[in-house]
Design a protein that fits this description.
Layout lengths: L10 H31 L12 H18 L6 E8 L8 E10 L6 H14 L3 E2 L10 E5 L2 E7 L6 E7 L16 E2 L7
Antiparallel strand pairs: 1-2, 1-7, 2-6, 3-4, 4-5, 5-6
Length: 190
Amino acid sequence: MMPAATGLRSRPAVLLIAAALLVSLILGLSFIALHQFRDLRGAAVDPVAQPLTDEQARLQVLAPAREIAGAGKLTGVTANYLLMSCKNADEPPYQGAIYLNFNVPAVLDTPKYFSSIAAAMTANGWTEAMPPSRHPGGRTFTRSGVTVIYFRNTDAGDRGTMQIYGECRDTADHRSDTTGWVDVTAALPR
């Protein structure tokens, strides 16, 4: 007859150790997953320390649009503004966004033209960032929390598109507002 297993080799002890290790593994993985989930959401969903009013959010992107349209000597400019959610489709916080369209020269002359816009922006304190991944030949700039991305519009060969995004600091609740792009072309230099 075999002696009964005792100590750490007994079936109940092995099951208890396995359960403790499994619980530790699950808790550790949960901590890592939640930490990474928070990092993926980023600052856009953190509480806003210094909120902007609706008008401040609009001016945060409209002022750079005016500046760049003038300094970059953009022609045929049209622009639309939208207050967009940084979180999902409609919850606060919001950021101002302007989509500006402008004339561009022939395809082979566009890089030189985009470089002249970049030089004008750099001269006004903008910092060049990584180029936009979905728009070959495009450029990205930042300054004071505002991001500007411009590129050749693939749907209209003679036009460029500039997207200007402000900070996610407008905390007013706009969930019940009627939304849509608002034409702000008249507020830009001609």
